[in-house]
## 1
Amino acid sequence: MKKMRFAVASTDGANVDIHFGKAERFLIFDPSEQYCPLRLI
């Protein structure tokens, strides 16, 4: 099975609140069956 990741755009690292084209940073999620660690890039 392929590993899935997804990204959201955030201005403060806590809320998904900005368009990708305007974002200075993104939150990258690496979901699994047990947990979903987060990386801020």
## 2
Amino acid sequence: MVEVSIELCNGTPSFVESELDYWLETVRSYCPWRGRIIAAADDPSVFDTN
């Protein structure tokens, strides 16, 4: 049991994307509090809106 802890893996998708190297090399996990998977694809370009 711990007396104090902090949340390291919570963040907005845009923040994770802008700091991707930090998240991949240091945090190494992503666990948003309100996140949910709405779709998945092997090819990320499927979701490209540009």
## 3
Amino acid sequence: MLNERSKDWLSRPTCSVAQFAEMVGMSRNAVYVAIERGDVQAVRIGKRIVIPTAPVRKLLRIDEASTGSAEAA
């Protein structure tokens, strides 16, 4: 079950590496390694790395309704 903070993060288009790490119970270093391997999709914006939440919701099998996202169609 997702906590309210995770639901808030997943309702946004992207989340930070630290937020993703907390959601899935990994260390930040492990997330960076997973990104480097291609296991986790990420986008670099300047010096910052963000993780699109749509693939995360799909990976974790979380529907839009459970995150309170207005993007649900």
